[in-house]
Please model this.
Amino acid sequence: MTEVTLKQIWIVDDDQSIRFVLEKALMREDLPSRSFTNAREVMTALEEESDGPQVLVSDIRMPGLELLTRVKEKHPGLPVIIMTAFSDLDSAVSAFQGGAFEYLPKPFDLPKAIELIRRAVEESQREEVAEQAMAAAPEMLGQAPAMQDVFRAIGRLSQSNVTVMITGESGSGKELVARALHKHSPRATGPFVAINTAAIPKDLLESELFGHERGAFTGAQTMRRGRFEQAEGGTLFLDEIGDMPFDLQTRLLRVLSDGHFYRVGGHNAVKANVRVIAATHQDLEQRVKEGNFREDLFHRLNVIRLRLPALRERREDIPVLTRYFLQQSAKQLGVEPKRITDAAIAQLASFGFPGNVRQLENICHWLTVMAPAQLVEPKDLPPEIVPGPAHAIAPASLIEPSRVIEAMQKNNASPESWESGLEAEALELLAAGRHDVWEQLTKKFESRLILTALANTRGRRIEAAQKLGIGRNTITRKIQELKLDSH
Model:
């Protein structure tokens, strides 16, 4: 991952005691800081110095809102935390409308203030890493006709704010397409916010998307903005939309229909000025037929559909992608880039790449660490690429080198154990770029356990539940969820 140097936290407040307390607290946390007594000093520093702050913390009376507006014009990605009195709710609302990252009510609890600043620092660094990666690399590589069609579609959509649905297999680069659509859109100066709906637990996803009010649930000690508010004026990328829980699909549809939403525990509607780009590797039409995805939401999202080809459909791009990823991996690790022979490239080009471009990128990272010489030959390629009994182990390209060796040792030590089979299947799914590995393997594990217990008890559910150590209601629910009635 690209490293980002931590810049200063700028504090703007005419109250010396506030500045002093925050400075000392940040120093204890190894967070560099710098203080200003008024907004004019800050604006001068921003104009004259090339290296701005990591985060700006300003009192609302500085005047904070005017400062916020001017800062956002010049540094749209800079997180700004506005300090305000509890009683000044109108100002807090105005701060969010102006693009503040968060507001800090006075008098504030110091540990909570530092936690908030740390969250802003992490958000800022994530954005910087993404920006550096985008600046250092071409948006997308590919000369294959299928990719040229994608590039032309991005060009045609460049001046549009229309909702786009990107389809394609896992690892094919759907987020890269979404970023390119954002970069070439009228919203390019606004934020690009991505969220993988399959990677966040169901009970947290609603708060993650829409934010929550203070006291909305246990642990909600402060009001928090969700991804819709963070993406204000920009683009929100909803990855793996097919996995979104059904009740949240209803909420999303409402936002797309009328442009408003409510934070969890909130009673005031928040306006959403956001362009939504969705992506999925699933067949949404089939999920609609099965009743797992709302048909009206499908039509709302499916205004423009952009299909991204699998890597096996654009094999002619494998040589240029391989050399590019080898260069990038070497740069990240601070080593000399590996070169690769035409024979090794040909071997790669003949592989099916179930994990698509992401899998190729990880293979190149693996080669940078594991290949014994500077020139990569076919025999140096990872096990899943090179056929033969010597390599009949789980795919290695998506795990760290130490884990590769460990996995090989484990598999060789006990080839017949069910744990090895489980590990092999898990690694294969990971190599394919799947985001539902836990769900898939858990279903198989639970199904096999229940069916075995039922066979042992000749179909008597209560007895099977007792032997498994689970409740009668649990086994009945699992049989229905896993559709085992037909067995």
Remarks:
- The first strand starts at residue 9 and ends at 12.
- The chain has four domains: 9-131, 156-308, 312-420, 437-481.
- Residues 437-481 form a domain with the Arc Repressor Mutant, subunit A fold (CATH 1.10.10).
- Residues 110-136 form the longest helix (27 residues).
